[in-house]
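[step 3/7] fold_predict: job queued, chain A
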Amino acid sequence: MTGAAAIALSVLATDRGVASERLIVSLITQAQGYPAISQRIDVISRALLGHRYEADTLIGGPHKPEVFVARDDRFDCVTFCETVLAAARAHDLSSFEAALRTIRYRGGVVEWRARNHDFAAWCGRNVADGLCQPVVIGEATEIKKTLTAPRALGRRSYVIAGIAGKTLLANKDALKSGDIVGFVSRRAWLDYFHTGFVMFDAKGGLLLRHASRSHRKVVDQSMKGFLAINDVRYLTVLRPQELEKPA
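[step 4/7] structure written:
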């Protein structure tokens, strides 16, 4: 293998090598028996519960070559969602890496400036690429954000259609397991502060499955509890789309 794919495998090999590749392939294989992408996301993400939280696992910068990183042993909130979504769309290691590049980078090009640094950009590009679609729940509130960090990316402006937290809790029937929820920051200079997957417990209670910085691992947490603890006012929801069937 050459190029980005070869780089990805070298990063995997830094920690657990073949064992890491086998876990990814095993999870993809296990999930193939489920026809809906929501089911595959549930199966794959459930298998990663308890895995370590770690920030800043991606490699690259404005003056440093970007390295395509694919790992299954530790995550931040975004790389957890990226890894699970890519695995749910894949049928082997090669298609997993291709899906992950498309999800993480504009046009799938492994360059620092093409990386979806802002979660607002992540959402917009994955919707534009047909990988996800917005879920509309109630009346949205327009939230304008202007970001300037990192400085090398220049000034970026976004308009976010925010769903009130209480509206989400009151309309759980509008949600599916595997929906991606993004929590809008109250800070003017930050678009989102966290993300994770919608899940349900055995009694139908609404859960957030996420790589939690406070718990230092991937956990299932009460959605109501998370919203209250973090004083969440607005959020957005994306629904991963099914793979296109060959003609």
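[step 5/7] annotate
Residues 1-10, 13-19 have pLDDT under 50 and may be disordered.
The longest strand covers residues 156-164.
exit 0
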